[in-house]
Structures are given as structure tokens and as C-alpha cells.
Amino acid sequence: AQKITQTQPGMFVQEKEAVTLDCTYDTSDPSYGLFWYKQPSSGEMIFLIYQGSYDQQNATEGRYSLNFQKARKSANLVISASQLGDSAMYFCAMSASSNTGKLIFGQGTTLQVKP
Amino acid sequence: EAGVAQSPRYKIIEKRQSVAFWCNPISGHATLYWYQQILGQGPKLLIQFQNNGVVDDSQLPKDRFSAERLKGVDSTLKIQPAKLEDSAVYLCASTITSGFHTDTQYFGPGTRLTVL
Fold first, then answer.
1. Residue A36 pLDDT > 80, yes or no?
2. Which of B56, B93, B102 has its CB closest to that of A52?
3. When comparing pLDDT for B100 and A94, which is higher?
4. In angstroms, rounded to a whole number, what is the distance separating the alpha carbons of residues A78 and A90?
5. B57 CB within 8 Å of a chain A CB
């Protein structure tokens, strides 16, 4: 079975600073994908970044980067230069090769960016 | 390219009533997912379709929930009769390929259901 754990229910960050959102995962599958989604108050899940289990380098997408530490089973999201529009709920999710592509989500972390 | 469309955006019903949600995935996307997101939690898969066939409905409460994707394009999720614990956001997502674990799922805006 797969499991995603996000231990930070809420985080605050000052505008223009960087913030790290934690995510640990558990799976026995050798092949899997890790995803981060942003969910603003409007409710839509917005895809941010993807990391494959065999990728040698950490994924980056603009201000988002994923700090992938395979041995520790962690996939932390780093947001650089935070903006007020980054205030939202953030979900870490996993899909493993044995589970037909469905996503297993963590509980989420609420991020608030202070001006 | 148009995104995943869902309707209605909001629905309020009384318990024991029935309700239906509609989803139109991104054009050409083979796989469609319905997730239930209870307030304060991450989404959980209810059912997965590949074209018009069911791939995974192990978490669907089949005594009250049903879903179909008859022509392999849009999909309808129905609840009959609704219970208070069905209050949640129902999210539809789609992927272009056939459910590989590397596929990015694109989500619609969701339908927020309140059962009174």
C-alpha cells in the first residue's frame, strides 16, 4: 500500500522569502511518481511539479523545485520568492506502477504568505 | 486547449435526495477519474475509467453511488440517496494516456456538495 504524509498543517512565510513544504511517502513499488498540487480557495487542483522515482535530478518548474531524497523517502516542495498569490493549500501525491495511475494524496499543508 | 469542465459548481440537497454531477475531460484524454475530497482532507479516488470501461471502483460506495462514461468522453456521477457524510467536493480529473503512474492528472474546478 502507498501512503503520503504531510506533517505541517499550516505554514507562514514572508513575501519574497523561500519556503519548504514537507512530504514523506511510503511504497514498496520500485517505480512511482510524486506530484505536488496547489489548491486555492476556489477549489481547483493545479498541477505544480512532478518527480519520477528514477529521475537523477531534482525537478524544477519556475519558482518551484522538488527536493527529492529517495533514501529518506521524502519529496519536499521548495517555493522561492514567495508571492501573495501563493497562499493556498498544497498537496503532495503519489502514483505507483502497481495502482493503475490513481493518485494517493496527503492531508495537505496550508500556506499563508504575509505581505 | 479547454480544461476539464464540471457542473454544477455548487449543489445543496437534503439527505435521502438524489444528485448528479457531470464531467467533461480534456479533449482526447483517455482516462477519467472521480475523487471525493472531504473538508480538511486530501482527495480520495472513487472511480477510474479508461475510455468507457471501469478500471478501479474499489472505493466507490456502490449501494448509493454510481458512475458512467458511456461514449468514453464525458461522465456522470450519481448519489442516490445522499447521506450527510457525502458532503464534500467532487473532483474530476483526466489524463491523456491509459493510467500510467507517470501521467499528470488535470483537474476540473470541482462540485461542492452540501447535504442538509
1. yes
2. B102
3. A94
4. 11
5. no
